[in-house]
Amino acid sequence: MKYWLVKSEPDVFSIDDLAKSKNQTTYWDGVRNYQARNYMRDEMKKGDKVIFYHSNTKPPAAVGVCEVVKEGYPDFTAFDPDDKHYDPKSKKENPAWYMVDIKLVKKFPKAVTLDEIKQNPKLKNMKLVQRGNRLSVMPVTKEEFDVIVRMGS
Questions:
Q1: Edge-to-edge strands, sheet with 98-113
Q2: What is the pLDDT of residue 131?
Q3: How far apart are CA 46 and CA 130, in angstroms?
Q4: pLDDT tens across 119-130, in order?
Q5: What are residue 94's DSSP bridge partners?
Q6: Phi and psi for 95 in degrees, rounded to 5?
Q7: Among 6, 7, 12, 82, which is least packed by CB within 10 angstroms?
Q8: Other residues' Cβ atoms within 10 Å of the Cβ of residue 114
Q9: CA angle (52 as vertex; 50, 57 as ends), nearest 5
């Protein structure tokens, strides 16, 4: 099993939106970074655990846990000219972009802010806190995952 962190802007799609989704499940679409795409396409597997993180908000924070329930498949929003994630270079026969499906496991009783993550010495090597790392999908270690879950509980 692997562990991940996925970022979403809460005004675009929040953990509460996920909680209201059918079966508390959604596809993770619109990722347009090749490294993040590679993680979803090649490495995220059914059963992997995911930290749901609210970005571009005050304060940014880890807000819950999800699970991968469907492995990488072509991101169909890239094929739709009316979708904000449309990419005319991505073709159904050779898709450039992929997504996974995630299901809510639990919302944290207490959000774990980026400042709290940065202040925790056990999280000092986490990709999230590395300078210049702005990926919307990134791996985390089991220890990092466990520490954040404890902090949010």
A1: 25-27, 98-113, 61-74, 49-54, 3-8, 137-140
A2: 87
A3: 27
A4: 999 999 999 999
A5: 91
A6: -65, 140
A7: 82
A8: 17
A9: 155
